[in-house]
Every structure is written in structure tokens, then in C-alpha cells.
Amino acid sequence: MNRPWSLIATAPMGLEAIVARELHQLGYEDARAENGRVHFKGGPLDICRTNLWLRTADRVLVNMGEFPARTFEELFEGTKAIPWHEWIPAHGEFPVDGRSHKSQLSSVPACQGIVKKAIVEQLKQHYHIDWFEETGPLYRIEISLLNDRALLTLDTTGPGLHKRGYRKLTAKAPLKETMAAALVLLSRWNPNRPMYDPFCGSGTLLIEAAMIGWNVAPGLRRSFPAEAWPVIEEAHWEAAREEAFDSVKDDIDLQLTGSDIDAEAIRLAEAAAKSAGFSREISFHVAPVAKAKPEGDYGVVITNPPYGERLNEKDEVERMVRQLGFMAKSLPTWSFFTISPNRQFEHYFGRPADKRRKLFNGNIECQFYQYFGPLPPRPPRGLHTPEQS
């Protein structure tokens, strides 16, 4: 298999452009975004690199094949024509997941069964055996049907890329690590500016900012099913991890602070920051938003306030958003970035956002409200700062 592989980075709705930007920055100039996924080309080393580095994607998949599938026969023959033996060894485990949308083949279990049978038939022809015990490496396959067209993929990632490994326990209603990273990347924050989160919960936004600030690859602390695949040599994973370790910039001073009214959430945040290796770089304290006191100039507030989904919580959420607005008035050089499903957020905050962006926090439709403060003044000519590199 010397030809470039067709790869897919799956993306939460609304973050496709951010995932594509990440891929471009990693050197994949051919990255092309569409609904829920970003297509790009690569080989074994690229599967390793993207699993380690992508901050906002859900998974990295191998595109095994696409073809029309209006009947079970078309689905069977199209699946069987794919050279599965180039990937799956005789003892490999290959479960099949499925989904169907706007397609004549609407029974997902039936489609899964057809795909499994077709793969078994193809492997039988190559390995000349009739029974596959499936005791080896995991090759999770998905059949996705959309508008009578089938897409078959292999999952290289396993548990979603938001599973960084540092968050063992969480406060209620946590923000996914991938979404937290996206909010930081969408903001004006850089490691030379203070950052504050007055509703920090279990600290995810601040930890993701620390990882971005120090250029820490988010997948360094975890493993992936594709590490056991013979088609990807162990040397590729070693090279990708060595590159990631060499890229860490832990000599940058970070100014990261979080507060929350919930003492238990702060305890969890401190434990997560310690697990991630940032216990000295991030400071946490118990305080309501009304008493939060960010320090410094030209800082950035990035936060995910409580949503108040229960009727008796709505007044409390309104009060907290108003207090966030009062904070913004007292910090004229700071920028504020907030994700919220509250359609009245701008009213309670006290002014319309400079920019809004629709995002989905899980299945909840939200807006990312962006309030731009002034940028820090440029240093005198001759001085050099990291952000100018």
C-alpha cells in the first residue's frame, strides 16, 4: 500500500473549519471540510501525528471506500470489492457499526450484517479459512449511508480524541476537551496574555489553554487501537511521539486563573491540572463571579457559564450573566468570550457581542459570544516576543 490513504478527521458540528485549520497548520494542505468531517491524504506516520496533535477533532478514520448503495446487493458487492486483507489480519477483530440517513437502506442492523458478511467473504478468499476467531487487534468499521451512498471507514482512534487522560472525575455538565480547545483557538488569547475563567468548573478551558500555550500534543498521554495494527510500524508511533515531545515549549510563563462558587469543582480542577502537569501554571480559587478579580491588562476571559436548564435556576443564571457584564465594564482592556444557549445573553450582559458564532455543546445549540477588547500595544522596535515568531 504505497499510495496515499484517504483519511477523515471527524468534527463536531460547527467546528469543521477549525479542524481543517489545524490540519493545514500540521502541513496537510489538501484538507477539505464538509459537514461533520474533514478529508485529507496521508500515510502511516500521518495517522500517528494527527491522532496525537488534533485538538478539536473527534476521531481519525481511514476512508476504505465510497459507492452507491440503493440495494443490499450493491452494498454487499461494493463492500466485498474493498481489499480488507491489506488492513485486517486473519486474527483481527472487526465489529461493524452503522448509521443511515435519507437512504433506501434504512435498517441499520441489516446493513451492518450485510457489511460484516461481505468483509468475511473477502477475507475468506485471501486467507483461505472459513472461520475468523477475531482475537487480535481491533479494527472498528462503520457503514454510513447518506442519500443512498455508502461510506465505509476504519476507526484508528478508539475512544474519542477528547479523552486526553488528565480528567478522571468531572463537575456536572462538563465541557468536552475538544470544544474547550476550540473556544481557546477561536479567541484572541495567546500565552503572553492573562486568561481567566470565572465559571471554571473542573478546569477544562484553562488546562486546554495551557496545553496550547506550551504546544503540548493533546494525545501524548493516551493510546490508540491503530498502535496494534501491523500496517503501521511501531517506528512511526515512536517518531510521532518524539516529534511531539521535542515540540513542547515549557519555558513560557503562563498566567492562567480560574474560579468557581463550587468548592468541589475547584478540588476536581486542581486534581485535573496536576494530572495534566500544570499544577504550578494554573491557579484556582473558590469565589462567585461577583467577587472574581482578574489581574493584569489586556487579558482574556473565556468561559462557559451555567445554562440554567431548570426553571428555578433561570433567575440565578440571569444574575450571573449580569455580573459577568459588570466585570467586563471594570476591565476595559480585557476581551470576553462566552459560550451560551441563552438567547437573552447579550441583554443580560449589557451590550451586543462584536461577533457571534453558532456552536453545538453536545446536542445543545449555543452561540459563542465574542467581545473584543483592545489588543496589547506592540513592543518597542527591536524587542522580540514569542507571538511574533
Short account of what is shown:
With 389 residues, this protein is an alpha/beta fold. Helices cover 31% and strands 21% of the residues.
How do the strands of the widest beta sheet line up side by side?
2-3-1-4-7-6-5
Beta strands, count: 14
Helix-strand makeup class: alpha/beta
Tell me about the largest β-sheet. Answer: 7 strands, mixed
**Percent helix:** 25-40%
Measured on Cα atoms, how large is the radius of gyration? 24 Å
**Could you give the distance between the termini?**
39 Å
Task: Please state roughly what percent of the residues sit in beta strands, choosing from under 5%, 5-15%, 15-25%, 25-35%, 35-45% or over 45%.
Answer: 15-25%
Element string (H = helix, E = strand): EHEEHEHEHEEHEHHEHEEHEHEE
What are the SSEs and their pairings?
Blueprint: E1 5-10, H1 16-25, E2 32-34, E3 37-42, H2 44-53, E4 59-68, H3 72-80, E5 96-101, H4 108-127, E6 140-146, E7 149-155, H5 177-186, E8 195-197, H6 204-213, H7 234-247, E9 256-260, H8 263-276, E10 282-286, E11 300-303, H9 314-330, E12 335-340, H10 345-349, E13 355-361, E14 364-371
Helix pairs in contact: 2-7, 3-4, 5-6
